[in-house]
Amino acid sequence: MDFLPYAKQTIEEDDINDFIDTLKSDFLTTGLKVNEFERAIYEVANAKYCVSVSNGTAALHLAALALLNEGDIVLTTPNSFIATSNSILYAKATPVFVDICEDGSIDLNLCEDILKQDASIKAIFAVSFSGKILDKKRLKYLKNTYNIKILEDNAHTMGVKLTYSDISTFSFHPVKHIATGEGGAVVTNDKALYEKIKMLRNHGQDDKHQMLDLGFNYRLSDISSTLGLSQIKKLDTFIHQRQEIAKRYDKAFQNTIVKPLYPYTNSSLYHLYVVRVDFSKLDITKNEVIIKMREKKIGLQVHYRPINKQPYYKNIGYGDEQTPMMDRYFQECLSIPCYPLLSEDEQQYVINSLLEVLNV
Ligand SMILES: Cc1ncc(COP(=O)(O)O)c(C=O)c1O
Asked: Rounded to an integer, what distance in angstroms lies between the CA atom of residue 178 and that of residue 174?
């Protein structure tokens, strides 16, 4: 059996054929495919505008620059890829890490407690962690009641609609729902935000090539957009295949020490399938499990080490926040293989191997 990573892209004949057609065409960088892909993205997100960019981090960077001012205080989650809170730092703003709920996402009740006490908070940067969509009504309530900006980092939830939030960002890294190699996008319903992000993506220039701001080259190529276009057509299928895997895992782990992060819901998009294991009850450590599973050719991952406890963040004064839920979650979490091409036999092999290694 081949090595089974925790995540992997699905590239099929149609993707390859379209890709070759673009390679033979006149445009490799900014041609019609970019516009076509952007249209497809905003249609999926039910949003008015989309700016495609070179990766999900660039999407967050430009979104943060468009939404924030220097010195703004922003509530965010410790349970994400570092890019989420890094984008706040890029904008010379200050992230404040808020503890998470049982499902791994930022605790919006705790956010409200902080917002009640501190009127200087300008925004929440939240992540629909692992594929479970954030409580949109609650976000809308917080936005309107406390007059704050909301950014949804939807790197784990390609397919989610933009509703009340100011901006939603995506990543098309190969482990995500759709792959363009490197790639990402920002969607918004706000024309001014759209114009600013589009300008910053292209060196800070307007349509007449006047440089108005210090921007970047964060453009997505026609080559990548071509792959994105053939991938996005299959998004619903990919999501369905991931959900089927989640259902099967949920069932297999019933009444075992392996606890799915949250019970199956068909609104969850399962970028990751995360389980929690209470290692304090076992004779084996989490690292030993990762090593033993690797010997069985199964790649587990940890999503995520608390961002506020990363060495860089500690060096700039973070790390002492009270985040007991995050701390316990980090002791227990493991992401197991979940991607459309994982066959039923392979899923069963993952289930059997994990239970065997845990000796339960
Ligand atoms: C939650 C989250 N945000 C942002 C990113 C950054 O995306 P990219 O790797 O495309 O820069 C990722 C990707 O790993 C992610 O998981």
From this structure: 7
Rounded mean pLDDT, 83-110: 98
User: Which residues' Cβ are closer than 6 Å to ligand 1?
Assistant: 55-57, 60, 80-81, 83-84, 127, 153, 155-156, 171, 173, 184
Ligand 1 centre to CA of 33 (Å) is 23
The answer on pLDDT for 30 being more than 90 is no
Query: Mutate which of 61, 81, 272 to test ligand 1's pocket (most atoms within 8 Å of Cβ)?
Result: 81
Query: Mutation test of ligand 1: which of 55, 125, 157, 173 has the most ligand atoms closer than 8 Å to its C-beta?
Result: 173
Asked, colleague to colleague, whether 13-232 and 235-358 share their fold, the answer is no
Q: For the whole prediction, is pTM greater than 0.85?
A: yes
Domain borders along the chain are: 13-232, 235-358
Q: How confident is the model at residue 239 (pLDDT cuts 50, 70, 90)?
A: very high
pLDDT tens sequence across 301-331:
999 999 999 999 999 999 999 999 999 999 9
Q: How far is the CA of 360 from the centre of ligand 1 (A)?
A: 34
Across the chain, what does the average pLDDT equal? 97
Domain 235-358 class in CATH:
alpha beta
- Give the model's pLDDT for residue 360: 80
Domain 13-232 has CATH 3.40.640.10: yes
Helix ranges (H only) for the chain are: 13-23, 32-45, 56-67, 83-90, 108-117, 136-146, 191-201, 222-232, 235-252, 286-295, 311-315, 324-332, 344-358
* CB burial of residue 17 (10 Å; 0-12, 13-18, 19+): exposed
